[in-house]
Amino acid sequence: MRAAVLRQGRVETRAVPDPVPGPGQVLVRTLATAICASDLHYMDHPEAGADDDSGWSTYDQDVDIVMGHEYCAEVVDYGPGSRRPLAAGTRVSSRPVMFGGGGMKIIGQNPETPGGFGEFFLLDETLLKPVRSDLPSETVCVSDAVAVGWSAAKRAQVRPNDVPLVIGCGAIALSVIATLKRLGAGPILAADFVPSRRALALAMGADVVIDPGEVSPFQAWRDVTADSHEATKNMMAAAGSSACVVIECVGVPGVLESIIRGCERGTRIMSLGGAPEGDHLSTLTAKRKGLNIQFGGGPLPEHWNEAFEAVCSGSLDVSPLLGRTVGLEEVAEALDAARDANGPARIVVVPDAERASQ
Amino acid sequence: MRAAVLRQGRVETRAVPDPVPGPGQVLVRTLATAICASDLHYMDHPEAGADDDSGWSTYDQDVDIVMGHEYCAEVVDYGPGSRRPLAAGTRVSSRPVMFGGGGMKIIGQNPETPGGFGEFFLLDETLLKPVRSDLPSETVCVSDAVAVGWSAAKRAQVRPNDVPLVIGCGAIALSVIATLKRLGAGPILAADFVPSRRALALAMGADVVIDPGEVSPFQAWRDVTADSHEATKNMMAAAGSSACVVIECVGVPGVLESIIRGCERGTRIMSLGGAPEGDHLSTLTAKRKGLNIQFGGGPLPEHWNEAFEAVCSGSLDVSPLLGRTVGLEEVAEALDAARDANGPARIVVVPDAERASQ
């Protein structure tokens, strides 16, 4: 098959052997795979992959790796001994993980578990979800990105009087905003340097957007909440709590630190960025403020399923996230383009054979 | 009065003006004040005090500052307009904070709110707690340290199957251990390089003590929990959760990072150390593991009250924490001695007049 292959730090599209499904595995044909910022994190930071003792994500520059973990695909065949739960030709997706003898692996972030930037790849039979939808595969494939934001928004446990502040307005942030909106939270504040991203935030449900180059997001938060009843605020402060819930969706060193320094006492921070370089954090300030930081983690399985159904049913409209579609030959260029914050939240890769048939 | 005064980074005992209670303030005579590691953090890190935009703790090297925030004292007089809630001569303590026009201030960490390393100091009338106890003041004064650990242990929300791991065995850690024991948690693991501190941990209720120079605390944790039912572990892991609750009580750069790198996925970390230098944290590892870090914060008022009553009633025996007693003239030397992890968890300062009368 043809695939966009990561090797020695760069991506090129060429022929590689077809993947062969083992026991419990499904061979699928790629219909559409979205480019995610964590593809860039992964390819740019081999030391982070080499350093991960979980084994979920590994990186070896000397072997072929096919990235791509936000996909919509079609069942082709099953490995030995399968119950063949869905017929060949069924459109499917799944959480981007593969279970097996060596523990869990993230699909598209391991040499053994190639992802959707190739014509074919493998899924875990037990995680297969049929796509019950008339929506195009390019739309369905972003449900994994939506699931990350969906789960984070749900796990942030925003209470009725909380005012969430979303830092960064990439695809994950936009999903966070859409989910917070569904949960009835508000006003929702969202900050990004890029005007087009702020426009997307409004489209997805943000009530107030902030240009951090103009005003501190925390000052904006204080302005918006200035009318809150003083007694409520004092009561919450006495209980070591704040109405401030910050969802960090940037993943660049210094951002989490700036949140620690800027936020209110008792703020709860949901940190989804996961900067591969790490961040130097003011632990004394964090201690004085009694901050809580929940680091991302993947979406819980039930949250992934909910987000997938919301995207497939069209009840969560992801069209504002979608930019152009490219072929396999253009993956290297499209990965580079995805670095540009002025671009769309998602560029989608559709293998050439699929494109021809559209 | 005489006081141990912090000025230009060093402490000397000399005469300073007597404090004068303002409206809502109480003049108290110091009976006993314990030396806390945060006195050392405060005096060693003027940049951290200068940098704290909360105003709770401020530091000016060019003015006199009297530290000391774990105290037992005796009511002398009240400021103008007071209801005089407790008679002169009553033994009292309080949370080490003062409310007023300029917002909240930590007692002993601001020029305007001197602490208990002088013969007299001021308390906030609204926070005054009478000491209903026959225990000596040297014992009662450590209740504030106990409150920090007590509140942290309660806020850590240890569940029935959780196995807590306490990193560091200083006074706060020992209070955490004692409180966890009361809450029925266990087995409780505690790690410290110093044999005498490990012995104290056992005395306060730890079930397993670990020398991190010999074995990784996380390996020890895995060994202790190896017998847990596999199905329970898998169920928890699927819910993004772990039975691992780590309470960090060290406050030295690198320790929080080593916890992030060493701990299980889904671990909840209660970080009480608050290293003034900050810490470089592996945010990607924290994200992959879905870690939650709750940074200290002060004890909640109700937790402070509970801990104070537990110490005063003798139901929580703090005697293992207590080392020698020193006079005001010896505070500088005793602060230095408190840097030695081989020393006792608490050295207590008793002003000279009080010592003479004992």
UniProtKB/TrEMBL annotation, chains A, B:
Residues 172-309 form the Alcohol dehydrogenase-like C-terminal domain. Keywords: Oxidoreductase. Pfam families: ADH_N (PF08240), ADH_zinc_N (PF00107). InterPro entries: ADH-like_C (IPR013149), ADH-like_N (IPR013154), GroES-like_sf (IPR011032), NAD(P)-bd_dom_sf (IPR036291). It comes from the Bacteria. Residues 22-130 form the Alcohol dehydrogenase-like N-terminal domain. GO terms for molecular function: oxidoreductase activity. SUPFAM superfamilies: GroES-like, NAD(P)-binding Rossmann-fold domains. This is Alcohol dehydrogenase. It comes from Trebonia kvetii. The lineage of its organism: Bacteria, Bacillati, Actinomycetota, Actinomycetes, Streptosporangiales.
